[in-house]
Specification:
The protein has 368 residues and is an all-alpha fold. It contains 20 helices and no strands. It is elongated and about 80 Å long. One of its GO terms (cellular component) is cytoplasm.
Amino acid sequence: MYAKQSRIGYYMLYYLKVGKIVDDKMSTYKDFCKTLENRDIESCLMTDLRLCQEDDVRLFTYLIPDIYTQFPNIAIGSAELLHLIVSSIDGSQLQDLVCQILQGHLIMFRKDSFLSILNASLEWETIEQYFLWQLIAAHNIPVEHIMPILPKLEFQTHAEALSSILIQLKQECPSAELLRPIFCRECKKHDYFSVSILKYWAQEYEDKLADLVLAQISKSNPSTPNRKRQRSTSTSISANKKENPTIEQTLSHLDHMRQVCRNISFITHESMQQALQYVQCNCTDSIKMKYGDLLALAEDFEDVKTTRVLRGRTKANTSPKPTASKQKKSPAQAPSDSSSESSEDEIVKPKTKKRKRGATPLDEDEDD
């Protein structure tokens, strides 16, 4: 029967979907696939769905939620099925799938196979990739699960993936987990991915980003610039740890940001100045020479701070002069008070003498 009518497979899928069977509604289809010689369920399912997609895209889209629900081990994580979907649907059918996802009727991705799907999608057409990223966004997948693919992406070649990741990063607050793969990404002259997101975060989360950069640079070991060599001699436990960018990798992105962006006020942030000063004190001369223009911003900032301090001291020396004169007057007033007290003593003493003199005549009068 299958040889004479090859479309009987997806006809059966449609019949079982609209039927009233609740428990294991696709068991009949599975039994049918087992009767075919040299065919397993996965190959039968993909062949039937491909025929359905060619004959009727609307029916194909209608069947998709049940395919992922009833055949999760086959459908979820299948780059082939996803490519079949995004290569055939239009905007209206994409909207139907997004609605199904938001209602909780459709789950298309799994963590353990997600990166393999992203890698496979890099070879797809532009519209196919954008449809895929719409489905990814509908699933609300954490951006941390996407970041491991970042070092592999080329700015000129993988524009669809990079632009979609940028939009997702724009909605996130910077963190050490997000900065790590960004700084590990190779810095190239005409690659504006890292510059764009760092500049945006510097505008929206200046204090947090500056503190994160300082922490990243401070914990990097300038004496071991080659992480690959260190990683080859490390134990299996340390090999499982996430790779941290070197100081030179971090400086390369900051220097690119300095060259591209006109406003570099972020570099003058206190934490950023501490980070650059740490580099000046702990890094090799070759790194200092390579990023001399960037590190000079720390020196210029220190010069400005020193100038301000000197100006403040000058004002401090000049402004208290009136108070100093007052202080000079107050000691001058102190002797005058003492002199007045002594003068009062001198006045009092004659009065006592007068009282004595006055007292003697009274006595004389009494004698009289």
